[in-house]
Write a structure and sequence with these properties.
CATH architecture of one domain: 3-Layer(aba) Sandwich
Distance between the termini: 39 Å
CATH class of one domain: Alpha Beta
Length: 266
């Protein structure tokens, strides 16, 4: 039996009377691509920060790669994790080449004398996101989408076993979004890398991910590929005022709808 990449048990965060996360249980195997969806304020970014060891939980337990995540083990475990934070819309001020921004993702970035040994890793990461032709460009002069792809290369440069992504398709057009999700699917399948990705649009990711966790303070449902997400789960997460529309019947969470005559629509 293989050791899970991530094992979360009874995780909680926030005050007892109004927790942000409450009773989170989650297991992720090698090569698994997990999407997390939920409304604003549901605790999605908080969960990623806790898994990344950046925020200590109030309660519960996390194992990463078979080892308990503690303040003592955190530094060593994080060397195997890539993390793309949520994009904040502010212009960078420091003059940096794109390849230097990517180099910041290296585990030994603080030892610049070793950086020359990683030039091929930097080039490989930029090539994955179609940014190799801009390796020496000034990061400040890139478009928002190009900056996001450079940030993704920074998360990938250390060839992580676990990749944490907080709304990685932000600032990307629909074509680039699809390329991103295809790339992540390929990396999971070919390298065994595991991915936890927070996204808003379940329809956009459903044909690529292995499962979708519906999060709003707690995990209301964890749907595997080919499984429908019940309507009451959506209402528990977003409230009774939502209008549920079906997409492709093959999507995770989507089911054919019926019109007033009983005919099914995909």
């Amino acid at each position: 039996m293989t050791t899970p990449i991530v094992q979360i048990s009874h995780l909680s965060f926030g005050p007892l009377n109004k927790p942000i996360l409450d009773g989170i249980n989650l297991k992720l195997e090698a090569g698994h691509f997990l999407g997390i969806v939920g409304p604003n304020g549901a605790g999605k970014s908080t969960l990623l920060n806790i898994v990344a060891g950046l925020t200590p939980p109030a309660g519960g337990h996390i194992d990463l790669f078979g080892r308990c995540l503690t303040r003592f083990s955190r530094h060593k475990l994080l060397r195997q994790i890539g993390f793309l934070h949520q994009l904040h819309d502010h212009a960078p001020r420091l003059p940096m080449r794109v390849r230097d921004v990517v180099a910041m993702g290296l585990a030994d970035y603080t030892a610049p004398w070793r950086r020359s040994h990683h030039q091929s890793d930097i080039d490989d990461a930029l090539n994955l996101v179609d940014m190799d032709h801009l390796a020496d460009a000034d990061f400040r002069h890139l478009s928002g989408g190009q900056r996001q792809r450079a940030r993704l290369a920074r998360a990938l440069v250390r060839k992580p076993k676990l990749l944490l992504l907080d709304e990685p398709s932000a600032a990307l057009d629909s074509v680039r979004q699809e390329k991103l999700f295809q790339l992540l699917r390929r990396l999971c399948d070919e390298t065994g890398m595991s991915v936890i990705m927070v996204e808003h649009d379940i329809a956009a990711i459903s044909s690529h991910v292995d499962s979708v966790a519906c999060l709003n303070r707690r995990i209301h449902h964890h749907a595997m590929k080919g499984e429908d997400i019940p309507e009451d789960v959506w209402r528990a997460m977003y409230g009774d005022h939502i209008h549920i529309m079906a997409h492709d019947a093959h999507c995770i969470g989507c089911a054919p709808s019926e019109d007033e005559h009983g005919h099914h629509h995909g």
